[in-house]
Amino acid sequence: MESIIVKGGTRLSGSVKIEGSKNAVLPVMTASLLAEKGVSTLNNVPLLSDVDNLSNLLKYLGADVNRSDGSVRVDATGKLDCNAPFDLVSKMRASMLVMGPMLARYGYCNVAMPGGCAIGSRPVEQHIKGLEKMGVTFRTVDGSFEGTADGRLQGAKVYLDFPSVGATQNLIMAASLAEGTTHLENVAREPEIEDLANYINAMGGNVKGAGTGHITIEGVESLQGTEHTVIPDRIEAGTFMIAGAITKSEIVLENVMTDHLTALISKLEETGVRIVPEDGKNVRVIPPEQLKAIQVKTMPHPGFPTDMQSQMMALLTTIDGVSIITETIFENRFMHVEEFSNMGADIDLQENHAIIKGVKKLQGGRVKATDLRAAAALILAGLAADGYTVVTELKHLDRGYVDFHKKLEKLGADIERTSDDTAQRSAVTQK
Ligand SMILES: CC(=O)N[C@H]1[C@@H](OP(=O)(O)OP(=O)(O)OC[C@H]2O[C@@H](n3ccc(=O)[nH]c3=O)[C@H](O)[C@@H]2O)O[C@H](CO)[C@@H](O)[C@@H]1O
Ligand SMILES: C=C(OP(=O)(O)O)C(=O)O
């Protein structure tokens, strides 16, 4: 089994380039299915297993997908098959996003229940409710959602009970080819929604208000493939900010949109870390020797992102004093607490609050990545721990981070990725 072995205590220096956003590229790739004419070229695409898995799903559905040098070319002009099977869909949450385009183009879809990180029950009733308002009838068949519409989807007024990112994306895509106007209320305001709207507008669509809580979509007759450059990954950027903070190292991040990271930057500044914009899209992370304990609550954007919760927890376990993290988005996103505790962290879980008493030093050991962001968070903890930390279950990491260990190694970390059992065993017994 592959693992990452990290020896704590090394200071980092230098710069690291941030990739295109996983959570932006996945909906954009599914939106490319909306184009009956023309080919889309998507740039700044990260080399992630989620992108591979989604490419395989799009190919299965009949699109022609080609990857080269950070770009993906999607040709969806042929007749598509609207049946997305469990073995492809279950690999990743975002595969649910083929539903909107399929229904918009063909008035039919049959999509298995999606997968993704096991961080909560992750129901999809907001997607279904909105699509029903546009004229789709659903039934569940053997664990799949089969949706049928009589002719073209119809513009509608949809209020989301919660600003779900995926539901907002599915509904924007469905509405972009519907007849008439769709008003979406209480929608997600994440930067990835704006990126999707920009792409659809460049394809000839008419989406207004993305980035606010109310989006209006005028349906158009057809959309055509175009070129689009995916926004930088705010979560990867945030993860490297914490790498600097937890190792007390000044590092530079390249290709960052600080406007997308307001909540994280503000909370890091409360701890005492300075995040200083430099030329272009670079930022410098400047941590002091002594950081302060803080309170953090995850919220929909522009609140503190749940996808940064475990990395922030890694940092707070090392800060003297009592910090509190409250998770409000996913009911089961504290699985990493047990792993941090195995490294000597002092964390008391009370419902959706984690009460963290900073310890002088975390201890290296063998820990298991419980989800994508927890994988990165445990590696960050390992950078600050005494001795060696061995992090297993790297399939989670590969969903969302390109060459994470190589980037940290380039910054000076003592880190390797190996499938050598002996190296892993001797690392946990060494000090
Ligand atoms: C591929 C992608 O972009 N994934 C991101 C997306 O996931 P995803 O789009 O799945 O997240 P949602 O915003 O939909 O989910 C947030 C919360 O709403 C609930 N919910 C959602 C839909 C629904 O119909 N009913 C319902 O109850 C979910 O169970 C969860 O508790 O946004 C999450 C919240 O920022 C991020 O953590 C994920 O990284
Ligand atoms: C939870 C995440 O992804 P997904 O929604 O694809 O499981 C994430 O990116 O942290």
Automatic annotation (TrEMBL):
Q: For phosphoenolpyruvate, which residues are the binding ones?
A: 22-23
Return the InterPro entries for the record. Answer: Enolpyruvate_Tfrase_dom, Enolpyruvate_Tfrase_sf, MurA_subfamily, RNA3'P_cycl/enolpyr_Trfase_a/b, UDP_GlcNAc_COvinyl_MurA
Which pathway?
Answer: Cell wall biogenesis; peptidoglycan biosynthesis
Principal localization reads cytoplasm
Q: What is its EC number?
A: 2.5.1.7
**Claim: Chloroplast is one of the keywords in the record:** no
What would be an example GO MF term here?
A: UDP-N-acetylglucosamine 1-carboxyvinyltransferase activity
List 2-(S-cysteinyl)pyruvic acid O-phosphothioketal occurrences by residue: 117
Q: Which residues form the Enolpyruvate transferase domain?
A: 6-408
- Coiled-coil-forming residues are none
At which positions is UDP-N-acetyl-alpha-D-glucosamine bound? 93, 122-126, 307, 329
The protein's annotated catalytic reaction(s) are: phosphoenolpyruvate + UDP-N-acetyl-alpha-D-glucosamine = UDP-N-acetyl-3-O-(1-carboxyvinyl)-alpha-D-glucosamine + phosphate
What the entry lists under Pfam families is as follows:
EPSP_synthase (PF00275)
Q: List the GO terms this entry assigns under cellular component, sorted alphabetically.
A: cytoplasm
Q: Which UniProt keywords apply?
A: Cell cycle, Cell division, Cell shape, Cell wall biogenesis/degradation, Cytoplasm, Peptidoglycan synthesis, Pyruvate, Transferase
Per UniProt, subcellular location reads as: Cytoplasm
The protein's matches in CDD domains, at most eight in alphabetical order, are given as: UdpNAET
Q: Which HAMAP family match?
A: MurA (MF_00111)
PANTHER family listed in its UniProt record: UDP-N-ACETYLGLUCOSAMINE 1-CARBOXYVINYLTRANSFERASE
This molecule's function is given as: Cell wall formation. Adds enolpyruvyl to UDP-N-acetylglucosamine.
**Name of the protein in question:** UDP-N-acetylglucosamine 1-carboxyvinyltransferase
List the source organism: Salinicoccus halodurans
Gene for this chain: murA
